[in-house]
What we know:
By secondary structure, the protein is α/β, with parallel strands linked by helices. It has helices spanning about 40-50, 60, 80-90, 105-115, 130-140, 175, 180-195, 285-295, 305-320, and strands at about 5-10, 30-35, 55, 70, 95, 120, 145-155, 200-210, 220-225, 230-235, 245-255, 255-260, 265-270, 275-280. It has 2 domains: about 5-125 and about 285-305, Rossmann fold (3-Layer(aba) Sandwich), CATH 3.40.50.720; about 130-280, Dihydrodipicolinate Reductase, domain 2, CATH 3.30.360.10. The longest helix has 17 residues, at about 180-195. InterPro entries: Gfo/Idh/MocA-like_OxRdtase_N, Gfo/Idh/MocA_oxidrdct_glycsds, GFO_IDH_MocA-like_dom, NAD(P)-bd_dom_sf.
Amino acid sequence: MEEIRWGIIGCGDVTEVKSGPAFNKVAHSKLVAVMRRDGAKAADYAKRHGVPKWYSYASELINDPEVNAIYIATPPLQHEAYTIEALQAGKPVYVEKPMTLDAAAAQRMTDAANQLNIKLCVAHYRRAQPMFLKVKELLDQHTIGDIRLIRLKMLQPPNPVLIAKTEDNWRINPAISGGGLFHDLAPHQLDLMTYYFGAVKSASGIAAKQQENTEVDDLVTGNILFENGVVFSGTWCFSVAPQDQADECVIYGSKGKISFPMFGNKINLTTDRTETFAFEPLQHVQQPMIEKVVDYFLNKGPNPCSGEDALITMKLMDDFTEV
């Protein structure tokens, strides 16, 4: 392939700014078709974004001969079926996070890609953003010495502004999302932890439904022991008072600490003094990752986030929430 000609399955809110426009802004990449089960909405998206074709059935988009790569941006419930169908059609797949509902489904997707020898990437796009690459650089440079532990807090009131608004709040339907707002936000954070600190030795957690009339866990705590001896402790709570909300990750080392938000644009490095690194907000947050995916699909670079990589995150989420 000399150009990646994308088809999007699920052209909903997440694709309006975060990802969709970037497919036409990356070199050797073009968005040629979109699909949504509501045909009128698919047609409207195609018209507004200048996309030549639209479909209301995923199979029609997957089998369009002009489409040679698939981006799956539906809710997690559909990720496995659409990914495997696209792989079986011989088309590489870029699938949204969380990769799917649970680790078992993620394993099936990864196995299918390997058995069919078709490329699969998962949209843990913070791996490619300048701010989080700077954190990795600081860690690789041993700026804060030997890493001891990581403390992560994600505390939000009900209906947090961090969550994309949709017509139906499918994120709190476990049959569709896999497990509520934890399953929506934690993949970003846990993937970065394994990207930074490597193989996991053990993991465990506690999950609870503290609000009334909820089907999903709204409080999750999780602990990880990495093979290198680094310890992670995270807390996610989605029922705190608005004034108590927090988004913070602190990495402690033998010579200092690095602190940063997951949804922000500033890093603080503290040793004998504090240094701040500020970053401009990205217009399309997935564009740096899409550039790496396109390079991978064109055999010009490595896989920026494989099925095996994302499977680790899915296993951690299962470890934290399984009773």
